[in-house]
Design brief:
Distance between the termini: 10 Å
Largest sheet: 9 strands, mixed
Strand content: 25-35%
Number of helices: 7
Radius of gyration: 19 Å
Order of helices and strands: EEEEEHEEEEHEHEHEHEEEHEHEE
Length: 300
């Protein structure tokens, strides 16, 4: 193992998600985005869209579902034209998963993460041995399924019993129930603390924490207060053959540069590189994009 601190990339990058068969960012502007999720067109709020829409108003008005926000962050309610299905299947390569209209404006997955899925798939397929991958705050499991389909043994952790149930459904949809995936409903920090005590090791870690959250028995997660400790624990879980650690954060006050500095500090002595920057959704036209989260990614 190298005694060097990981080298931080001198400039940020933008990991862009472009349209695929089941998803597209059709237009954006005036604080909203118009997206296609399988057969449905959806309008959701997005404050970063400071520009004007390019498609005519009648196209936006014909959307199947519109999320009307309230004053509380991510809260609001859906308005529908007609009767969209409660769930419907979507796919990204081999991973198949159900989209659904959740109470918090999301549709049970985050399409901008497709740029990360692509990187994970390529990285895992390049390894000569089956890697053990830990996916923390794994939500409905699309990243876990991408990793499993690429050949990894995956441990998927999320504090929500409902999300774990949806993730298991998605594994069945993907015909991946025979793959080595462990589904763990537990507070991520408590699970990692126990894994460190057990001496468990992984070749890859995916860390996608919320800004704020609660564990299944009332544990409180606050990004700025708790991420430094959790990232240090995750560093202890990386094996001598570790290949990657991905950290993603949506908090408005965070930056890719801050995440990169944290990862380089926690992985001091491992060498490698830390790339950092933004995850972005690109419009169908390819001319505009929305930066939605920040990332830092260590590679051996």
């Amino acid at each position: 193992m190298s005694a060097a601190r990981p080298k931080i990339a001198p400039a940020p990058g933008v990991m862009r998600t472009t349209a695929w068969d089941d998803y597209a960012l059709l237009d954006s502007g005036d604080g909203r985005k118009l997206e296609r999720y399988g057969p449905y067109k959806v309008v959701r709020p997005e404050p970063q869209c400071l520009w004007s829409p390019r498609l005519p108003a009648q196209v936006w008005d014909a959307a199947d579902a519109v999320f009307d926000p309230t004053d509380e962050e991510d809260a609001g309610r859906w308005r529908f034209q007609g009767k969209p299905k409660e769930t419907w299947p979507m796919a990204w390569r081999q991973a198949r998963f159900n989209a659904r209209f959740t109470a918090f404006r999301h549709l049970a997955f985050f399409p901008e993460q497709a740029a990360n899925w692509d990187w994970l798939e390529t990285r895992i397929r390049s390894l000569s041995e089956q890697p053990r991958v830990l996916n923390l705050f794994g939500y409905t499991g699309v990243a876990s399924l991408v990793c499993a389909a690429a050949g990894a043994a995956v441990t998927h952790v999320d504090a929500s019993k409902k999300a774990i149930g949806w993730a298991r459904e998605n594994a069945e949809l993907s015909d991946l129930t025979d793959r080595p995936i462990r589904w763990i409903c537990e507070d991520a920090r408590r699970y990692v603390q126990r894994e460190v005590r057990r001496g468990s090791r992984y070749e890859g870690v995916i860390l996608d924490p919320p800004k704020y959250g609660r564990g299944p028995t009332g544990e409180v997660w606050r990004l700025f207060e708790d991420l430094p400790e959790l990232s240090a624990l995750c560093a202890q879980l990386l094996s001598d053959k570790a290949s990657f650690l991905i950290l993603n954060a949506y908090a408005a006050r965070i930056s890719g540069a801050a995440l990169a500095g944290l990862i380089a500090d926690r992985l001091d002595g491992r060498g490698g590189t830390v790339e950092w920057g933004e995850l972005a959704l690109s419009e169908d036209s390819g001319e505009r994009e929305i930066g939605l989260s920040f990332y830092a990614r260590w590679s051996a």
